[in-house]
Amino acid sequence: MASIADQTGRAWADVNLRALVANARTVAARSGARLLPMVKANGYGVGAVACARALEAVDPWGFGVGTVEEGAELRAAGVTRPILVFTPLAPVHVARHLTYDLRPVIADADALAAWLAAGSHPFHIELDTGMARSGFRRLDSSVRELLRGAPGWEGAFTHFHSPNSDPAATARQWEALHAQLDLMAARPPLIHAANSAVALGRPQYAGTLVRPGIFLYGGDAGGYSPEPVVRLSARVVALRDIEAGETVSYGATWTAAGTTRVATIAIGYADGIHRSLSNQGIVELGGRIVPLIGRVTMDFVMAAVDPSCALGDVAVLFGGLVSLDEQARRAGTISYELLTAMGPRVVRRYS
Questions:
Q1: Are 45 and 341 in contact (CB under 8 A)?
Q2: Which of 18, 81, 132, 290 is deepest in the core (most CB within 10 A)?
Q3: Calpha distance 288→314 (Å, rounded)
């Protein structure tokens, strides 16, 4: 068994950066647009700095983050391309954006006025075409006046709410975006709306930039399957044989029907393994897929395994015979959530 000091002594994620770049190239080729890769939420849990550095190979326009702090981390790591912060700008945060040379997303008139008062720095405006989350509902005359001739107005965008399930709604949102921009005497040079699924399957909505996210990191998008990027693994740290009628884990929610070898695997909900995988999840162990049994606990999960299973064997939670999306379906969630849930105790190893 690996020593505790070893990176693979407990739980770890192997990240294939070559696959990440290959997935980015696929998006670029299918969309025909330049990339604005989303590296928010620590690169979807994978590691924002490592991913941004790898994605330099595809010559992206820049990178998308969720917070000023995420942008500052990239700047500290030497990333020099444009960084767009997708949390709408609050006037009190203008100086923080300028400190780190970050582009803000502007979603209301007060924020727009505050940004323009600080100079001619670049910015993007968000238009709400149906998501009802943030953004201008319409560009009224006062907003149009502020935008008219604004030298920093670099981009405009919207978010599609149902690109996988409602093509008609996606078309209406695209039309609504352009209807608002048609009110302006001049448009900004950058228009973007497409996420991974739209960029891959509907290039007519690609605009100037596309914003790939989950597909880059190995999650299915719009029926398109990427190269796997993350392989999440953990060690078997305990074994026991139980008899018919004996139970496993908290609440005794699983009962053995016969003699069963139970492997305890050193990963749990503190590491991002959803509790909803209790009695539902599967793992790869010894080249076979075996079931998780009993409730997921903070530090461990248990599996019913082959008698040949030994201490120190490696269980793969996803990224091998069990795909990221298959495990997400079993957890009743989406691939994004499994990736971003990976906790700090899970060592990331890059290759």
A1: yes
A2: 290
A3: 12
